[in-house]
Amino acid sequence: MSASNFKKAGILTLVLVITSLSSWELYLRNKGYFISYDDGEALWSDKRGKVYQPFDQTTTFIGSSRIKFDLDIPTWEKITGENSVQLSMEGNSPRPVLTDLANDPNFKGKLIVDVTEGLFFSSSPGYNNQAGKNIAFYKKFTPSERASVKIDYLLESRFVFLDKNFFSLNALLQELPVHDRPGIYGGPDFPWNFNRNTFDRQSYMSNRFVTDTNLQNKVKNIWYNMGRAIREKPPTGALLDSILLSVKTDCDKIKARGGQVIFVRTPSSGPFIAGEKMGFPREKYWNMLLAVTNCPGIHFEDYPAIAHFQCPEFSHLKPTDAVLFTRNFINILQEKGWIFPNKTMYSIHSFSKNSDHGF
Amino acid sequence: MVFNSYTFIVFFIAILILHNLPFSWKVKKINLLLASYIFYAAWNPPFILLLWLATVVDYFVGRALYTQPNKYKRKLLLVVSLCGNLGMLCFFKYGGFLLDNFVQLVNTFGINYHPAKPNIILPAGISFYTFTTLCYTIDMYKRKSEPVKSILDFSLFVTFFPHLVAGPIVRPPQLVPQFETPHKATQKQLLQGLFLVSLGLFMKVVLADSMLSSPANTVFNSQDHLATLDAWMGVLAFSGQIFCDFAGYSTCAVGVASCLGFVLPDNFLYPYAAIGFSDFWRRWHITLSAWLRDYLYIPLGGNRKGKFRTYINLMITMLLGGLWHGANWTFVVWGALHGFYLWLEKLVQDYRKPRLKPGVEIIPQPALATQGFMAPRFLKKVQSTNFLLALLTFFMINVTWVFFRAPDFTSAWRMLTSMFSSVKNGTPLLPTLTIIKVSVIIVGIIIFHWFMRNTRVLLVANKMPWWLLGLIWSAMLLLLILSQESSSSFIYFQF
Question: Which of A9, A142, A147 is opposite residue B466, by nearest beta carbon?
Fold first, then answer.
């Protein structure tokens, strides 16, 4: 083949690739899909690197999925005048991240730990896997990977088809009607609209999910099946003591360096909270956690301003409630003695003018 | 920096533009050298010092080795170079391994010695650039080639970013002359290079990372005795993953170099179509096999010191080749298994030699120095029936991958048990769709290798109608973009 033939092949390739991707993008947008960022190890590591910002300018959040949905980051940043670093992970216990931060001598900041008891007190590897992977990735986070996150942001903020969870090759193949062998669990199949992700790692439900009870029921059904499949019993006795002791050790390390730690129990509702109360009675777990660690805590049931929320699928707040929750949560934190030196009248004023979070 | 990252795409575009601007050849070489240092430093900046140290020491020692008339001083210089290069490799790659084994040994003798675990980070590509610089100093000692004239050319030879971290392992005569005269890609070289980069990324990102790595990891990380089907699917997935990962990297490296107007040697020639194990090693990681042949097997005596020594030399070469891949006894067993296969093959060959009928033409035995480890003569003439022998070879290679991938012998044994015996209540692990994906890809790889075994991808691409090539190229690119797997490291970086 001569060079001109190779050139023709190259031009054809360029035309086909651009045409196909443009058509795919237009099709997805026409169907109502919108941008969501890949919440992988690289994005988590990018945020993990931000915990060293000055004490009076940053608060770090660790936990499971609830605080990712319930904390509205634009609201937090506008009211407090501080950055928030969201390091929580869906379906994972925050304990490995707590230990990682405790063992990092450079972390001396403010830390809010979200407690979803079933995950927080679990020792199952399945609930610690992703945390372990993210921490390991961060420890080897190369300058090249840091730069890739920035370029990735530029691309993912423009193209809907770069939603790895739903439009990657594997995700598309997953849609094929292939039945699994007996004994194989392929994992939960969440609807697309349930968990959208911002570049700051905030999760939110789409408007469609908030109004569509069929979609909500689908997620409720997933929680129900997951609840039935759990074989691990809540820890008691020596195992619980060792968990509480390890959390206390981690908190003490952070506090000894001048850091602050507070626990928060974010809202859940319906049968979900009934099950949680049965499995993890407050006096045996939440109260013990605060007593052993000697850290303050905010349980949503103790504060009328945040006790009334109804979660669409029993476990996470819808975006409008997340804004209300965040505003009241900041007030409660202040009642607990947390100081936000940058919280000014201007920031409150600015918030009231710009309360649209863009969802 | 890895080829499958957005950072590399930006970096590569910048390099291509710089390389095609009207600068002098020396400025272009300086650009390439600086770019190579950036490429390496983008992984872990401090380790660039090691690279500089190896470059400077070996440049000056190499020159001295070539010009020094005194035999003893030359030997001393060679020892200095070997100790420097291998010492660095041993410290970073084998330090922890040696300490662990030493501790276990002294503990067996009842000595209670428990030192702190050393926290040694393995510099990316150290095994590759150590072998690159080693072959230069050994060649200088043997006066096999002229010393490199300028430190700029030598630095670029060691550091040239396409081959720096995972090969192909280049020899000075393959690359240095290309730096002596101006090189710029022709339009055809550029397009062919881009095609090879697309192919390499397709292999790495779509096949290895997106389709095969997950089932391989799931199966090999499992602590259960698995169902036979799952165990085999895991091993086959790894078999495909390691090929697509490493051959994908090498293809990218050759393609990137081609875009800049340089030629790097091939590193893979459809190894899963190999007929026999010596044939496999002529097709798998060719530049490493050739390095081990020229700088280890032949200096040990090769096949020149009788049959017994040939067998011993083969085994030593394969054991050390195994250890080169990783600081773990499982890699040594992987090498030993390959050595054992080569023994078997040679035994068959030696057994058949006297039984040849009178009158049958005896083809002169190819010299090891030019043809790699010997392939049995009866396998040389490829016929369609040999496809079964290729399948047998592939089957036996898969058994060796168990030791290569398993983190320890317990896991390896558990995997072999699941593969070769009917495990009662073995745990099913992989979803049906995954099994279909692995099966389709592995069958596809085997068929593709078989039909390509006597040709090269660019030869085939050049013969294709342009529209067909365009269709294949765009399919690869579309799947690459859609797979959305970026920035994961290549497996061979850890070696």
Answer: A9
